[in-house]
Records
---
Amino acid sequence: MSLLLLIALPLIASFLMPFYRRFLRPVTLGLDLGLVGLVYAFYGQLPVQEMVSFSSPLSIAFRLDTASYFFVALFVGIRLFDSMYRLREAADPSYFIVGNLFLVGVLGLVLSADIFNLYIFFEIASISAYIFTAMKQDQQGYAGAITYMIVGGIASIFLLLAIMLIYLHLGYLTLSAIGAGFHTLDASMQRLILILLFVGFGIKAEIFPLNLWVADIYQAAPIRVDALFSSMLSKAYLFLFFHLVYLLHPDPASLRFLTVIGLVSFAVAELSALRSRNLKRIFAYSTLGQLGVAFAALASTDPMIIAGALFLIGAHSVAKVLLFFGLDALEEASGSVQVEAFATFRSPFLLTVFAIGFLSILGIPPLAGFIAKLTILEGFAATGYFWVVGSILFVSLIEATYFFRILSKRAHAEKTVEISLSSGRMILLGLLAAGLIILGIFPGEAMAFCTHAAQIFLSGVPHV
Amino acid sequence: MLETLNQPAYLHFVITVGAFVLFAIGLIGVLSKKNLFKIFLSFSIIESSLFLFFIGNHYEVGKRAPIVADGVTTFDHQMVDPVPQAMILTTIVIGIAVLALGLSYVVCYYRLSGHTRIDKMDELGDAS
């Protein structure tokens, strides 16, 4: 079995779409189930490495190890959830095609083992994200897509220049060769390439101060697309950022700098959320905040903290899918995504779903987010970084303030908006919520997997 | 005198300076222009400067294009490095696709808003 199937199947399905347009919903579900099966089949074979087409450096190199497997499984799982949630809706061919392109982009980002193909998948993921942003075809959507394209264009230029300088000075494109030869470059050239990569991937990984555009994009895009951006796109770039960081072996001072950047990102995002009244923007800021915590933790070089960060990424992705899909139901019923609309809906089920999502993100026991944050905080405390522990706890209080402010709005408001979810959708949302609780109570297996993934993550990449 | 320019060091220096000037023109366009069309075209100029820089720095006078055809079956030392050529061809295709998408969104945006100015784009934000 080839890793190429993970990339080729969604693309082939898109090209052949006109032939089965009438059966799009079952085909989409079949494709996603097939991808989940494929990912499951690779579990016993890790690590998998493959060279496709010509010999190096013209080849396309793929690599699937425990660290990248974590993200591949997460993305394919979320995509399956999205397809099942849409099962009763009218089939949308354009969403099918762009969704496949998006999936190929994010899977390619975590699977690629050479830097030029990373760039190709970077562009594929970006183009599909631009199209997703404008999917509503309204003025806000186009304004958001244009803003996104301008920001993405800047990231693309920085990244392209970095790749060109790497090839010009090293003559390699494969990541393992770059990792081995990078220290032979001039110190000034190393610094220049690192800055270019930091800006290029930092913009896409949504890290302060390169993330000021993110809330606008979330506001412009359809809510279910926001769920995919929050749980897949930003996570793929975060993985990629630190994959390159550990590959290039930066000095400890640079890693401390990244930890500080992550904490500042967390604080600025949560403060921004505090003054916002649009739930899409609040959830976007919350995503930026959690990415900041994960960023700080991933820069720690401690396997325990990195395992906690991976667990946090998984828990946050599930919680954000829950929140955004819940918000989608709220918007469908009330026509608004303002905080005031949240106070007026009548649905105990949806309220429970929102509460579980909020509490998991806050890190309240017995939910998955609690285990993730506890592991991160324990790890930082064990390594003597008490100022990091204090910062995370203090900013979490700000996060709690706005989440509880949203929930408290309901106390005195009249409940006038009826929300009726189909039983299928309630089961799906219920399963995700139950997943957060189960992972919080029995984290053993998942945390063991994250710990192994963290060790692989820290070791850079094997030779391809 | 012009023969001197054939030496790789001089040639690459001239090409790098030319690419830098082109990059600066594009950058000035991105930073100073308010019209969305001009901003996207400025991005295109910046991209072109990168293509020129990369291809130019891998060119040497007297070497052939790395095309395996017409009886030639393998790459040899009389050809320039094929990797930059393949990379830039791919990047040009991506660049054109992104530019076309961007310009089409500007047209769609103009139809709904009646303007193409970035400083008047105020649809997004907490106040909206």
Note: Chain B has one domain: 2-61+80-119.
---
Amino acid sequence: MKKRTTRAAAVAAVAGILGTVLAVEVTHAASVTLTEATRCRKAITTQGRVYAKKRLGLLLGCVDKLLKCEILSEVDGGNQNACRTLAEDSCNDRLGSGSTTTLGKAQASFDEKAGASCVVFDLPGMLSTAAGGLWYANDATCAASPDVPTLIDCIRGQIEQEVDAAVGNTKPRAGILLANMGLGDEFPNLPLPPVQTLVVGAASPGTIQPPGAINLPAGTALRVEGDPGLACTGGSSNNGNLTITVGTQSATIKEPWGPTRFALFGPYTTSGSVAYTIDLKDQSCNDSASGNVVIP
Amino acid sequence: MIRPTTTETIIMRAPARTVRRVVTLLALIASASYADAATSKELLDCQKQLESQVRAFSNVVLQGLAGCAQKVVECKLADEIDAVDPTACIAKAAAKCTGLPSKVSDQAAARQAKVAARCGLIPLAEIEQFSEGLGFFNVATSCGAASVTALVGCVFDAARCSAERELFTLDPRAQDSLTTGGIAASFPCVAP
């Protein structure tokens, strides 16, 4: 009796285990299509968040450094050129356009990881808005992507727009600070205020044509660039400097002058006058002009 | 004239000294708030606190929403591709999404209070100006903020919306998933 009971219990136990194993098998036996769809979607969302976080951190970190130098210069006075040089070097290493910068590596990592996870599921499945698709065709900007790498690249571009706009919302001076250090073109989605350009003209080579009073609407930044004709005659060196000071803000534009080298000031938010000076130093030529920026 | 004892003198003088100190302190606070411009440290601390709280808040929003959307979409994909009954799976996923709107609102309120504590004594005009300030003029103008508290609220609202849009970019099925999870109405920026 006792033996029979033991055997029956053992059989029941084995049957139970088998049943459980089979049930688990039935529950988790996802098809290849489902596995790949899930893998692709998860890779894009996970890697996309990782990349967005990285880009946000790098941008905010760089702007932190730049902003600190500017605030210290504007509020406490003193020369912050060393502070600016350190900050700009750090920003160039992290955010510059090359593939070896920290940002470049993060971009490559997203493209590689997300792309590799979606190769099997492929473009039609990713774009499809039908049952079982990932619906990327609903993104008007990326819907026409011809292949997986292009779609992944396009999604990254969308993330970048969103992140850069978020940086502008949290640190509104970011756009101006990056533009002033020459990284503005890398981040076109960082919001910039409206801009009015002043080209510092030459009365003759090596001499400034005084701009007089500069009328600037409230909320508009003053963009200053130098006319190439400012260069001192008699030499071919490109080491002239145009130093502009508006109120407590100051910047130096190095030769060669022209529209690609500029400095942004302000914007000024209350009506009144802000004094400016422009100093030219190029070889033997020294000249300066001064006046007021008038905000109505 | 009878002079008070030393003990009496101390007892009598103490309240007067305290009152004088309090008055001096109030005068200092008043002058710091309304007359003196913010120091560079105050401006930088305010900016740092705002940035730090907004980043943490955005993470909470994005992480919470992405988690909810993922649980729901996995149920739906299994149904659509492998014809697995999604009922129990979705019910379980939706239960995990339910608390998200209140969690996000609570986080926003707590973090905004922390920013206000750091930035609240700086006049709005100084936070708005680009020179010797933080440059929030256009942000404040576009959302009609007339106080530092209102401006901080605007920045948080924009950050929340940005996190929601980011989710939609990464996962175009997210709006549908949140609708199934019963919380889409609380996150209107999860949309094209």
Note: The first helix of chain A runs from residue 2 to 28.
---
Amino acid sequence: MNPLLNALLVLVLALNLFMLGTSRILTVIRMVTLQGILLGVMPLLVHEHAGLSAALASAAAIILKGIVIPFMFIRAMRDVQIKREVEPLIGFLPSMLLGALATGFALVFAAKLPLVGEHTTPLLVPASLSTMFIGFILLTTRAKAITQAMGYLVLENGIFLFGLMLVDAMPLIVELGVLLDVFVGIFIICIIVNHVNRAFSSLDTRRLATLKE
Amino acid sequence: MENVSSIWYVPAAILLHGLSGIPGLFCSRRSTRAPYGAAGLSLAASLLGLFGAFQVMTSHAAPPPLALPFHMIGSEDWSVGMDALSAFFLVPLFLLGGLGALYGLRYWAQEEHPENGRKTRLFWGFCVAGMALLLIARHAILFLLGWEAMALSAFFLVSAEDHLPEVRQSGWIYLVATHAGTLTLFAFFALYYRITGTLNLHPIGGDQAGLGALSALFLLALVGFGLKAGMMPLHFWLPGAHANAPTHVSALMSGVLIKMGIYGMIRFIGFLPAPPASWGVLILISGCLSGILGVLFAIGQHDLKRLLAYHSVENIGIILMGFGLAMIGRSLNRPLWILLGLGGCLLHVWNHALFKGLLFLSAGSVVHTTHTRRIDRLGGLAKAMPWTAALFLVGAVAICGLPPLNGFISEWFIYLGLLHTLNPSPSGWAAISLAVPALALIGALALTCFVKVYGTVFLGRPRSDAAQHAHEAPLSMRAPMLLLALLCVLIGLFPWWVTPMLNQAVAVWMNRPSAPEMNLAQHVPLNLVTVIGVAFFLFAGWISFRLFHSLRRAGGKTSLMPTWSCGYARPTAHMQYTASSFVQALLHLFRGIMRPHEQRPDMHPTFPKEASFSTHVDEPVLDRQILPLGRLLSEWFGKARPIQRGLINEYLLYVLLAVVALLVWTMPLGRLCECLFTR
């Protein structure tokens, strides 16, 4: 059990709730960036004797999630000239409460999971589940495409946290492959965001429903 | 030793047929030679297969089954085997498989159908090979492999012209029907495996299963094979598929493919020990229904190939009547009923393949030159296509069951068998003979229907430009028709030529060696048929000779006059009797069943304007039951539309809810509650 790791996980949980509560997109981007960097550090902390592969995964995660992806988000935001998420489907306070509820559920559920708990800190699984839930909440309650893309990134962060438990078992190539997936996904979304904005003169994904047959 | 080698002919033929379309795939789309290669291979394979089949049928001992050198599923070897019953079905298969390939050379010529010619030839080979495989399979998985190869390649054959929407629709309906049938067969073989513990196909022992399990097997076989055979309520795929397929494919499907359903019924229902008589009665009744309704709905059709397709339903009905009688005979232990019933059933399988193949091929010649299947747009074709007209007439007389052609012989066997139920001490089973008037009704209605078709299509005057400019089919299309017509006449005149093979096949089905009392020739005066038939042909020849002579003496000139037209001064071709008007009285008589939709013109004003009149008869099962049911279901499922609005947020929410529900479900909720609410 690593006290530093635990502290970082608590920070990740707090960032999750903060993300749900703010309307400024730039703030959300900063939160996601910070979360990504924190996650990037974690592989080094999970094991005392972290090898080269952990260092490599860590470096790749920090570069992608801390630098490249936020940069793409900010550019996309500048291109489409929006600053705020104005009309979410669920208000900011209710979604924050929902997030808290999800975190609670994750804690209760993880306690019941039959885990091989040798080297995991007790917070790792709940933090992972809660981050996934909050990613989902962002995806489902926000209307703007760019916020949804961030929800997608948060969701992936949750999966990354879960993967930390398997850092020995999982080959490096899988980790890097997941990161590449995320990168490509976000890259494409950021390009599409611009086109959606031009075609529909809005970033509201609800308007995409007109594409339905 | 000779028998051991004879079993190899059919697998070799299967291989050749299956491969026949493959070289053509590597040839150019414009290559005109590749089709000849495929047809040549098909013909060679058919000759080989026919040789093998006849060798089995004429030798008295069936060759021992041959274990294939591999097995893929289960621990048992896949084996193939031949007996007189398999061989009996192989004969029409290889006959039509070869002749149809020859016919398709000009009918579906590569230069006229560059986009689907190669596909059609490829799947033709696969389809024939699949059918032959299922006929010789002695292992359930091998049987199903052959069955699916046949069913799927037939789907591609039916939807050859897949750029036409109605072809696509019939193809889909066929695919749904055939897969429903295969699913039923899966259930059948699974149950069979549960009862016998083996997938090798052999009769079930009398003590292995109770009546409940056997009845389930019987019903599964009846539905699964009945769907393929086109038995009445399950025939809904058949008219569309037969009408929209290329005509040589229709001939193969109607002549042979639907008979695979009959083969399955005969073979696998024959496996069930001690059948109750009610099974046979059920088969007999469904046979009567198929026969009468099939021919009735045939009368209401305006499409030449669709009409022939309904006649397939009718003939399947006649075949099932024979089989039903044989089943009743088996339950009550009356060998004579079995002999006459199954003999008539099997011979009708051959005969239907011959005359329906002939009818479809001659209809194909008509369609090929006029490019229409609508009966009311044809007319007067006998002058332009004398060969086709004469051959169609042979097929029409045969299908109506008139002597001296082959259709009469098989129906005669069934008549005799049905009448024999009255013969020894009329028990309660004499009621079976009520099927006799049903069979007679079928024959009479079929005659009406073919008088309508022949009169409208070949006699009178052309009703459209297309019919005006028709020309005779080329030799490669006429030759297969000629051969089929010749076989129809031969079986009609010399039925004692086929009865030894029939005896053997019946003996195989009864699981006992061919006994001397099981001889059709003993119970039916076959020689009399030959005498009467030959006398008839001599008489007809003499009459035509005299007519020809008197015409010659009159100057050899025939004058063309319009038909008496009630004194109307300038009759046109459109004023002839149409096919619909010819059968209008019958349609009216049976309007309770047929329910024809008539669109009548409004003739009220003093000077009526241009008007049109049309009638249309629905498909009784597809249009009246299945499609309304489908619409009802889609209406119900349409109520789920609101949850599918195209909003990505909502879809993600569904994913989330599903994940949460699954997580909650895995949680030990009971223990959780205990923890929370107890101290």
Note: The mean pLDDT of chain A is 83.
